[in-house]
Amino acid sequence: MRISKDPEERRTEILEAAEELFKSQGYINTTVDSIIKKVGVAKGTFYYYFKSKEDILDALVQVAADQLYEEYRKIAEDPAIGVMDKVRCMLRGQDRLPEKESELMQNLHRPENRELHERINIEIILKISPIFAKIIEQGKQESLFQVENALETVQFLLAGSQFLLESGLFEWSQEERLKRMSAMQTLIERSLGAAPGSFSFM
Predict the structure, then answer these.
(1) Which burial class, exposed, middle or buried, applies to 18 when counting CB atoms under 10 A from its CB (0-12, 13-18, 19+)?
(2) What is the block-wise mean pLDDT of the chain (202 residues), using blocks of 10 residues?
(3) Among the four 63, 102, 112, 180, which has the fewest Cβ within 10 Å?
(4) What span, in angstroms and rounded, lies between the C-alpha atoms of 123 and 121?
(5) Distance between CA 159 and CA 177 in Å, rounded?
């Protein structure tokens, strides 16, 4: 007798199976058929929940982005953390993603995932920038920053950083990457009207 499962439970089951396969044999080497076989469902069931393998990766990364958003929100709203410490924690936030989410993010750097990567970057920028802007506004009140249009400024900085440093498109050497990190530090400080060297932790 076939066991009928709750739709959300079934969807989660497919996601978890795909995640295990992506981790064990790589995203490129994982096929829809291999995911179906691991879960033990009919092909029609798979396509009821997901349009493609890319759709699954998209869903898994959304989870990672939501987790990052929630972590940043908690940091931003914690009255015990100073402004610069909040910024420092958030700029290093992606380094603290759980291993499985970090691996998924790495998969996005593959050339064939460029379109998906761009969609995820857009979502991260839209979700995270209002939180950053809120902290920048707090910094303005404490005379740490002098900037107009905090949200728009943060979005430009995030977009530039994501594209130049996180997209994997440029294949910078370590020396080239360090030079651009240094330039980004200067850009951030000048854009926010922060004291020179205040973002040296980058």
Answers:
(1) buried
(2) 70 91 82 95 94 89 84 93 93 59 63 70 89 96 96 95 81 92 95 95 82
(3) 112
(4) 5
(5) 16
Q: What is the CATH number of the domain that holds 24?
A: 1.10.10.60
Distance CA 42, CA 73 (A): 40
> Residue 98: what pLDDT?
55
What does the alpha-carbon distance between residue 105 and residue 118 come to, in Å, rounded to a whole number?
12
Count CB-CB contacts under 10 A for residue 114.
Answer: 14
**Pairwise CA distance, residues 157 & 174, whole Å:** 21
Structural domain boundaries enclosing 93:
54-192
Question: First CA to last CA across the chain, in angstroms?
Answer: 58
Distance from C-alpha of 153 to C-alpha of 139, rounded to nearest angstrom: 14
Note whether 153 and 191 are within 8 A (CB): yes
If asked whether residues 46 and 131 sit together in one domain, one would say: no
